[in-house]
Amino acid sequence: MSESSQVAHFFAEVAATMKMKFRGWEKDISHPGEKGGIRERRVRDFLSLILPKKYGIGTGHIIYSQQSSVISPQMDIVIYDAINGVALPVDDYYSLFPCECVYAVVEVKSKLSASDGKKGPKGTIYECVESNTRLKSLDRGKYGLSPIHYIVFGYTTAWSTIQANRVKGWFETFGEKYSKNLPEVVLVLEPSFVLGTSGPTGYNDVGKLTNIYDKEPFLYFISDFIYRLSQTKTTMPNLWTDYINWRSGDLIAKIYRQ
Fold this sequence. Notes:
It contains six helices and nine strands, in the order ααβββββαβαβββαα. It is an alpha/beta fold. The protein has a nine-stranded mixed β-sheet, sandwiched between helices.
């Protein structure tokens, strides 16, 4: 067995195990919230094993400097700078992440679905574009940083045929019709395919998912994800000056002369 086929075999085995466990808990666990927690932990645990240790992994909200009203939705998985950044843990399972320290987020969905659009947008695909649009509103330009990558990890889809084209079409329909931001990458585990975008920025600023990958998709997904993280810059903000809205006249320090 060649080295390349060993790598492909490894990721194919991981994907097969995730699919098997997904089918098991979908059948045996009735509580939707617990299903969601399990599906997220499976992805988070794998990423914690495969990613370099400089990438911290958590869950929670991403916050933006003095504008306390500008906050992301709660993100399933947040990838942040564990060496030169900071996470503010509220408890063992939830943190606040200054946006300047974050590389990417991964939203985990059991099933990617969409409405027919007649009664307004809904479904997990719309939830993704709505969540990404709020995420991309976090302005990191003060530090010269690019946007945060938004990645979707879907276990399956709501459709039995031509799944990749249906998922691609609904993302693009919601993006165009409601002026929402599309994710950079979408993985569907079963049936297996990856939707992605390519361009000079590495971000989906074209409003399309331009590529469909169906050959070793899980391997492609992880490889592309690690590359995107490696190309994304983060920084440590000044929490004292950036995240407190000091008012004119506030006494913030006393200086004693010796």
